[in-house]
Structures are given as C-alpha cells and as structure tokens.
Amino acid sequence: MSHPILETRDLTVRFGGHVAVDHISCTFRTGELTAIVGPNGAGKTTYFNLISGQIPASEGSVILNGRDISRQSVAQRTHNGIGRAFQLTNLFPNLNVLENVRLVVQSKAGRGFNMLSMASSHDDLTIPALEILERVRLTDQADQIVSELSHGDQRKLEVALLIALDPLVYMFDEPTAGMSVDEAPVVLDLIADLKHRKDRSILLVEHKMDVIRTLADRIIVLHNGALAADGDPAEVIASDVVQEAYMGKELTNV
Amino acid sequence: MLTKLLSGDMPRSPLLALILIAILIGLAFAPFLFPGVRSIDTAARICVFIVLVASYDLMLGYGGIVSFAHTMFFGLGAYGVALASTHMGRGFDALFVGALSGALLAALLAFVIGLFSLRVRAIFFAMITLAVASAVAVLVSQLSGLTGGEDGLSYKIPRELGPAFKFADGSLFGVKMNGKLLKYYLIFGSCLALFLLMLRIVHSPFGRVLLAIRENDFRAEAIGYRVVHYRVAATCLSAFIAALAGALYAIWLRYVGPDTSLSMEIMIDILLMVVIGGMGTMYGAVIGATLFILAQNYLQNLMGSAASAVEGLPLLPDLLNPDRWLLWLGVLFILSVYFFPTGIVGRLRSGK
C-alpha cells in the first residue's frame, strides 16, 4: 500500500566550488516517516531547500508523484503537495495568530484573488483555521500578534501552518528546537498522528535520538552533502557510519 | 450596515472617528458650508487626492511596493478625458470613454512594468517606474500637437456640469442650483465610492495576501501564493484607480497640463500625504490629503495674518512672511514625521 511519492535523482547543488548537496538519490514513500540526520553543515536544510524549491538545483531532479517538479516555483510545488515547516521560525510577525493560519487555509481554497468580499466573512476559512489552532493548543492566543508570542508558541504556529497546508509530503526541519519539555510533546504527538494516518509521507530533520527512535520508520544519514547511510533505524543508529558521522568525527576510512 | 460599508475597518479611536466624520461632513456639504470659488476648488481637490493617495497606499502600505510612476497613472486618466473631450466633442460619452481608456492604458502599462521588474527585486521596480514616468512626462511635453505640450489642453465638458446650467430655480441656503454644484457632487460621489471600494479591497482575502507578502514574501510563496502575480495585480489595480482619480480631476478643472497632473512635484506630495496620514491605513490617506492640501492652500493666508499680527517685533514678521510658506510646510512635515512615525492614524490608534 505504501507507494513512492517523492524521489530525488542525483540531486546536487554547488555554491562556488563547494558541493553542499552531492548527488543524492533517494525515494520517499507514502505512510513512511523518514528521519534525516547528520552533523551541522551536512546539507540537511539545503537538501530540504532543493526539494521545496527555495534553491534551484545545479544538477539532478525532484520527482513528485511521477512528475518532474525541478523547474517549478516554490508556490507551484506547494500546490502540488510539498509542504515545509522551517527551522528558523518564519511567520507573518505583525498579523495575529488566527490570520497566519487562515492565510494558509485560504491559499489551499484558492481564494487569494477574491477582492470584493470581507475576509472576516469567510467562515469556511475561519472555522478550519480555528480547528487547527485547537490541535496545536493555540486557541487562547488566536487574537495575539505573532511577534508578541513566546518562542515555544511561535514554533507551534510554525507547525500549525504546515498542518493547515496538509501537503502530500510533510517536511519538518527540527520542529521542536528550542521548545520546553512540556511544549515539545504537543508537536511530537501531532507528527505521530500524521504518521498513523498512513496517507502522507513525512520527512523529519531531527537531532534528538529519542525522538527518532520513537517516530522514525527509516533513517537517512547525510555527511558532507552526500548520502552516507539509509535504512532501518536500529541498524543505522548502531552502524559505525552514524556513530562517527553524527558525533562529528572524521570517518575512519577518509 | 456601517460595518459592512467600511468593510469592518472601524476607526478604533474616538478622536480619529471624530476627525473622519468632520472631514466627511465638511466635504459632503462643502458648497453650502464654504461658499466661494476657492474653497469649493480646494474641497474638490481634497476629494480627488484622497482617492489618489489611497490608491498609492494600496501599493505602498499594503503591497510594500515603491513606485514613482503614480502621477503618470494619474496623468493618463486626466489626459484621457482631455483628449476624448477635445476630439469627440463635449459630452458624457467623451468623459466616459476618456476615463475608461485612460484607466485601462494605465493598468496595461502597470502590468508591463510590473511583469518585467517585480519578479526581480522591489528596488528595480522603483527605478523603472522613475524612468518610465520621466520618459512619459518628456513625451507629453514634446508631442505638443497632440497634448498641447507645456501649455496643456483646455476643453469643454458637458453643459450640465457648467455654471450656466440651472437645474432648479432660485437657490438653497444661498447656493445656486447650477451645473457646477452637480459637478462637485459628481466628483464627491465618485471619490467616496472609489474610497469605499479600496477599503473593501484591503480587507478582502486579496488584501490579506498583500499584507502577508509585505510581512514575509518568502513564507507567502511557501504557503502557495505566487508573490509576483499578487504584486502585479495590486500595481494594476492601483494604477487603474489613480487614473480614474486623474479623470475626475480633469473633469473638475476643464484643463490638463504637465503641472496639474504629471509633474514630479505631485509625486512627492503624494508620498508626503501617505507618510503624514499613516501608511497601510486607508484612513491615513483621508487625513494626510486633507491636511496637506489645506496647508498648501491656506498656510500662506494664515502666515500673512500672523505676520501682520506680530508687526513691529524684530525678525518674526520676516520669518512669517507669506513667501516663506514652503519653508514652514517643510518644518511641519519634519515635525509630523518625528512625532508620528507611524502617521497620524497610527498614532491615534495606538492611543499614546
């Protein structure tokens, strides 16, 4: 039942002489949660940027549902089913919490060019947005301006925007970074729920090993921009490659 | 009902509400409250500039797009009416055709400029608008056979909008029931409708997308909005409405020339009005335009009487000499930016 939804073929990007992502070929399946690990600077976020389109690839392609989306803009990829939550919080700071989520619901409904009705009169956009705030426990903050929220609540909102988008491929970039121990479970439970739905593919960049052990179906390891390991979580974690790459030491055979 | 008319954007400050109501009443009854050629002229100018400034704010305050071509769009509408009235003869059809073709041309030009420059970086758009606006201004002054060059064009508008046309006998509160009164209410009504339309647009789903783009264009794109498309649409809309304001101004003046509708000076005035009133608040356009035009028209008189009041004192009469009115306008501008960095409306709404 799990079929390939996203594939990168020889995906590469160079910045000057530096190869940040080096010929990564990898397939992701629906119903699968893949953890992407690697030391800082291994190319995890850059790999994400190539998939969601913020950076154009130097070589290789991104295939979504059998279609090459490598030349598409970020917005087009979003409409086709790639969704992303960012590592550094990336919201609309002077709008309120509800408006942030409603903008996503409105984008999905394709109603951005409606000019003559009042935005606040669209209950069919507001109600789903409020439901999503309920799920991330931000209902009480709905009317607050985002820049006045605590860091943890901003992280939750970041995740809420992605949940509102409900793409075919969810990309989380360290979703719990900087969250307190009581806040992180809200987000991790949401990701677990998504996983149990079995109809979405989830890519998760994460450093916390306990999170990876409980959630991941599969781990891929990036090292110096290249794919260093790919497989079952228990095996990959136990392997030398990960132990050494992840601890940031030089690989012994280099 | 009122909430719907204002698209849910209540003034949210008693003082602001009071000022807006005062301006609305002042403009709605201007011919009766302030009889006289000059004051009615000022009122019509305020109406037109409220629309012009609000249309600029739609682009700058909501879309975050800096343009220097707004007077060009304004001028296209004005020259549209002038050329149509000259070539088609006086008539409402000429006014209609002129205004519409000017507005469509403005939107088309905005579309082309936007498509070529908005996908790159915002600063290119600002530079290109500056270049195109200068080129058009030169073109208009050179093509004197068509546009009248620096002298501009005078033309006739329908008789029904002139002082010779009486639609009722006698007068009401001492005001003659003639075509000039009708013309004022044509301008006032059209401007009110255009303003309410823009108020609706900024509070529509489209307006929210513009705000999102101004706040964070990177994320707006990532949640699925094609940023370029929205920016181009906002620019076209803004140009279209600015051209309609220009057409109304041309109907009012029965004259167009580079000084009244195309000069860079007007562009700077628009910028000042937006900043004084408050960017990103449609009501800022109302207050900015009203204050600025009143100051432009009456500061000189005020200073004249102030100068004679302090006659005999050293230095003061010289400083208050009516010829120095531009200096004082500048001082007023600097003070208002210093004390109200978010504009008058921003300041009133924050309640501090």
Give a written overview of the molecule:
- The complex is a heterodimer of chains A (254) and B (352).
- Chain A is of the alpha/beta class and 254 residues long.
- Chain A has helices at 44-52, 74-80, 97-109, 123-135, 151-165, 184-197, 209-215, 233-238, 240-246, and strands spanning 4-15, 18-29, 33-37, 59-64, 67-68, 82-85, 169-173, 201-205, 218-223, 226-231.
- Chain A has a domain at 1-81 and 205-254: P-loop containing nucleotide triphosphate hydrolases (Rossmann fold).
- Chain A contains 9 helices and 10 strands.
- In chain A, strand 7 (169-173), helix 6 (184-197) and strand 8 (201-205) form a beta-alpha-beta unit.
- In chain A, helix 3 packs across helix 4, helix 3 packs parallel to helix 5 and helix 4 (123-135) crosses helix 5.
- Chain A is globular and about 55 Å long.
- The termini of chain A are far apart.
- Chain B is globular, with a radius of gyration of 21 Å.
- In chain B, a hairpin with a 2-residue loop joins strand 2 and strand 3.
- Chain B has helices spanning 2-5, 14-28, 30-33, 37-62, 70-88, 92-117, 122-142, 144-147, 179-202, 205-215, 217-222, 227-253, 258-261, 264-277, 282-309, 316-319, 325-339, 343-350, and strands spanning 153-154, 166-172, 175-178, 255-256.
- By secondary structure, chain B is mainly alpha-helical.
- Classes of the chains: A alpha/beta (254), B mainly alpha (352).
- The A-B interface holds A 52, 54, 73-76, 78-79, 84, 86, 90-95, 99, 102-104, 106-108, 111-120, 122, 125, 161, 165 and B 4, 7-8, 200-201, 203-209, 211-212, 215-216, 218-227, 230, 233, 237.
